[in-house]
Amino acid sequence: xxxSATKDYTGWGRREVTNDDEEKGKAAPGxxxxxxxxxxxxxxxxxxxxxxxxxxxxxxxxxxxxxxxxAGNLGFTKDASPRAVERNRTSFIAxxxxxxxxxxxxxxxxxxxIHQVSDAPGHPLSGDGLITRTAGLxxxxxxxxxxxxxxxxxxxxxxxxxxxxxxxxxxxxxxxxVGEMRRSFGTRPKNVYAAIGPGVHDxxxxxxxxxxxxxxxxxxxxxxxxRETRDSDEIHERYPLLFLTARAPGHSEEHLPxxxxxxxxxxxxxxxxxxxxxxxxxxxxPLCTVCRxxxxxxxxxEKDAAGRLMAVVGISR
Length: 317
Ligand SMILES: [Zn+2]
Fold this sequence. Notes:
18 strands; 5-stranded mixed beta sheet; 26% helix; binds zinc ion; alpha+beta; CNF1/YfiH-like putative cysteine hydrolases; 6-stranded mixed beta sheet; 2 domains
């Protein structure tokens, strides 16, 4: 499903998950398929700078990339040196096929605001989505657990990039993004291809009840986006045999606090489907930013020290 797992781009190969992997915690948690990522020789030697989405690979006019932490911090975070971030951005862009195109970034505010651009604006735009049909621009969003989503219309050759954390997802930023492309460029959803980049997956995305309630108020399918466990359930799932015999009758685990996990990838995939994008046109990275903190930045894992990853998309002239 996801080309990043091929050694061409990241040096990671794939094979079937086995029981042994699960016991050792080696399985790729949250992956959308049943494959586990395994390092190839190239991984050990190289430090991948970019990951690419399979759904977007087949169009020569369409250029895109999701950065890894090996590209350095690409966001002006609180503790970052602005000069270092500028330097990282310059070398990241220089390594991409479109090279010296202007970079259009956003002051991201967890909104559903989407801007249509046809050049690099002189002032910073606030919002969480960018769309264009103009060639020679890099549209970018920055993330460190939130999902970057890149979409492209193969017919009108228009592109968009969106920043979707839980707030933006509740506000349907991706669904609205496809709608904006329809209004601006006459995009028909059946011609849209989409790649959901790396972000926090449901293995690691614990949320509060208020987040679950917000989704339930907005989406009929919200029940399918959450997984609830009590601490003992996890042990149960992992070691079922232990509980088969050792469980005392009448012993209750009801008092254990509930944990709620959100599947943000599925939430955004559903929005793309609801917007009319064919299922076969959507790919999603199996990489969780928390689990793969060696390769990606994660705010949950690194707090204020977390750098920012960048997702970029552009149209070749
Ligand atoms: Zn994870």
